[in-house]
Inverse folding.
C-alpha cells in the first residue's frame, strides 16, 4: 500500500518548462491545484538559440527541478512549451528563436537529450489550456479564446475544455494588415499609442474574431494584462472579455497539463 501511495503522490506533479525568446523557465506543477510547488527556476535562452543549445538548457532545468522536494519520479514525462507552430512534435515555424528549428522534431530530440518522454506544445496553446482549466476560463463550456498580447498576438482555441492546437489568430488579415502588426502590445509601444487609441485597435481586432468564432469568453493574457483596466472597459463586444489569472506561470502549468491529459496522469 505504501508503495502504491508513493506512486500516486509522484504522479500528482509534473515538470513544466516554458521556452521563450529571452528566458527559459520551469517549475514543478501540482496537477490538482494548477499551481507551482516551490519557486520556478529560470535561465537565459542561449544565443544563438540553436536546438542543441536549447535542449541543453532544458535538460539543466529538468535536472535542477528533479532534485527538489515534490518532484515527480525520474521517468515521468515532461511538458515543454515552444514559440512555434507544433505539429506532431515538429516545429513548423520559429518565432524569436533560431530558424534552424523549422522542420525540427522537437519531441524526439528533447526526449533523447533528457532520457525521458518529453511532449512539446505551442506556448500560447499551453497558456490557454492552463487558463481554461485553472484560471479565468475555468468551468466555461463552449468556445473560449485566450489571446496573448505581447511581441505578437498569440492565441489558444479551447472548446469544452479541449484544445484545438495551433490557432494562429494573431495573423488574421484585418484592413489589409497582419493583425499583430497593429494590435500587439509591441505595436502600441512602437507607435506610441495611448490607451484610448490602442483600445480602438483592439476593438477592431476582437470584433473581427468575435464575428468569426462567436466565443463564449475572451481571456486576455500577456504582460499587458496587468493593465487591463486601461483598455478592456473601452471594448464593446457581445462576448465577455476578462484578463488572464495565471500570469507568468500559465505556460509552465499548461505544458504540464498537456502531458497529464495525453498520458492520462492524475489531474
Amino acid at each position: 500500500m505504501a508503495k502504491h501511495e508513493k506512486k500516486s503522490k509522484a504522479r500528482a506533479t509534473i515538470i513544466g518548462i516554458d521556452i521563450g525568446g529571452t528566458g527559459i523557465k520551469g517549475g514543478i506543477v501540482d496537477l490538482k491545484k494548477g499551481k507551482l510547488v516551490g519557486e520556478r527556476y529560470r535561465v537565459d535562452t542561449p544565443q544563438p538559440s540553436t536546438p542543441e543549445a536549447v535542449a541543453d538548457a532544458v535538460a539543466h532545468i529538468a535536472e535542477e527541478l528533479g532534485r527538489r522536494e515534490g518532484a515527480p519520479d525520474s521517468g515521468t514525462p515532461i511538458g515543454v512549451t515552444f514559440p512555434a507552430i507544433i505539429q506532431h512534435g515538429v516545429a513548423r515555424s520559429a518565432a524569436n528563436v533560431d530558424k534552424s528549428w523549422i522542420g525540427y522534431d522537437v519531441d524526439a530530440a528533447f526526449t533523447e537529450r533528457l532520457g525521458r518522454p518529453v511532449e512539446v506544445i505551442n506556448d500560447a496553446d499551453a497558456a490557454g489550456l492552463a487558463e481554461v482549466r485553472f484560471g479565468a476560463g475555468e468551468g466555461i463550456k463552449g468556445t473560449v479564446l485566450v489571446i496573448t498580447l505581447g511581441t505578437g498576438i498569440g492565441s489558444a482555441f479551447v472548446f469544452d475544455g479541449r484544445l484545438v492546437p495551433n490557432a494562429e489568430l494573431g495573423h488574421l488579415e484585418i484592413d489589409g494588415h497582419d493583425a499583430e502588426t497593429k494590435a500587439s502590445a509591441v505595436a502600441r509601444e512602437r507607435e506610441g499609442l495611448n490607451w484610448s487609441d490602442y483600445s480602438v485597435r483592439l476593438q477592431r481586432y476582437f470584433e473581427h474574431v468575435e464575428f468569426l468564432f462567436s466565443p463564449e469568453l475572451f481571456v486576455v493574457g500577456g504582460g499587458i494584462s496587468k493593465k487591463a483596466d486601461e483598455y478592456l472597459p473601452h471594448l464593446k463586444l457581445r462576448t465577455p472579455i476578462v484578463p488572464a489569472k495565471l500570469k507568468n506561470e500559465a505556460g509552465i502549468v499548461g505544458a504540464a497539463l498537456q502531458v497529464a491529459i495525453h498520458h492520462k496522469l492524475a489531474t
User: Anything to note?
Assistant: Residues 2-123 form a domain with the Nucleotidyltransferase; domain 5 fold (CATH 3.30.420.40). The chain has two domains: 2-123, 136-245. The CA atoms of residues 80 and 120 lie 5 Å apart. The mean pLDDT is 93.
